[in-house]
Structure formats: structure tokens, C-alpha cells
Amino acid sequence: MIRSYLLAATAAVAAATGTSALAADPLPAVTYKLLPAALAVEAAQTAIATCKGQGYNVSVSIADRTGLPQLLIVGDGAGTLSREVARRKAYTSAQLRVSTADFAKRVAGGGFNPAVFDTQLVTAIGGLPIKAGDETIAGIGVSGAPGGDKDEACAQAGLAKISDRLQ
């Protein structure tokens, strides 16, 4: 009998303290913006069209804010390797929140090189972060033009097309 009362009292105390602890200390929440698929497609198509207008067949990849692929569009006649390089440029820009050109400069200057630990990072020019205000929400990577500066110009054209809707 005493055991029953002791068990009931212990259960009552546990229930009371557990409930108040949950009510007093809610789980933290994180909010962030996402790049809508429609804008990702529009930016990629603009980048491909810009490069195609200059005679370059490219692939364009968009990675979400964590670096995971959101989109890959391979332009007509784009080289096989351009798919993977574009993906890695987008990944690098999304992860590091800087252009791949800036990352290349940082590494070339003798700075810390995180690519030693993350082999998906690249210093090839042509990747740009996609920002909504100061927040990086994705990354775009273009590959296949004869030179990273041309890849980056096409990526910039894609971002310019959607920039007014990145709030």
C-alpha cells in the first residue's frame, strides 16, 4: 500500500515538473529565406541564354543555402565535365557565402584553405552567392565558357534578372 502511494507521488511530481519545464523553456527556432524554384529556373535559363548569345555552351547549377543541389540545367552542347564543375561552384558559393573568385584570392594569398578538408570546394571562377539582403540563400555556378571570368559574367546576368525579387 505504501509502495502504491510512493509510486503515485513520484509520478505526480515528475508530471508536474516535466510540464512546467517544457512550458518555461521552449525549443529554439531558426528562420531563413529560401530561393523559390521558379526564380532558380529563371536565373539559370538567363545565364545559359547569356552565354549562348556569346557562343558558349554551359551548364548552370543552383545550390540551396546548405550547398545541396536545387537545380542543374545543361545547355545544348555543354561539355560533360561542366555539369560537375558548375555544381561545385554553386556549392562553394553557397557554403562559403562568397564568390569562387574571392575564395580563390583568399587561398592564393596563403590564407586558410578549407578545401583541404572539404574536397567539394573549388577555386574555379564562375560561382556567386545568391543573396536576399545580407543573407545568402543559395549559390549559382556556371561552367563551360572558355574562362571563369566569362562563366561569372553569365552567372551575374542570371542574378541580375531576378535581383528585384530577392527581398
Protein architecture, described:
- The chain is α+β, with helices and mostly antiparallel strands and 167 residues long.
- It has one domain: 2-Layer Sandwich (Beta-Lactamase).
- It contains 5 helices and 4 strands; from the N terminus they run H-H-E-E-H-H-E-E-H.
- Strands 2-1-4-3 form a 4-stranded antiparallel sheet.
- Helix 2 packs across helix 5.
- The chain is globular and about 85 Å long.
- The protein starts with a helix and ends in a 5-residue tail after the last helix.
- The model has no long low-confidence stretch (mean pLDDT 90).
Please give the structural blueprint:
Elements: H1 2-24, H2 37-53, E1 59-64, E2 69-74, H3 80-96, H4 100-108, E3 127-132, E4 135-143, H5 148-162
Antiparallel strand pairs: 1-2, 1-4, 3-4
Helix pairs in contact: 2-5
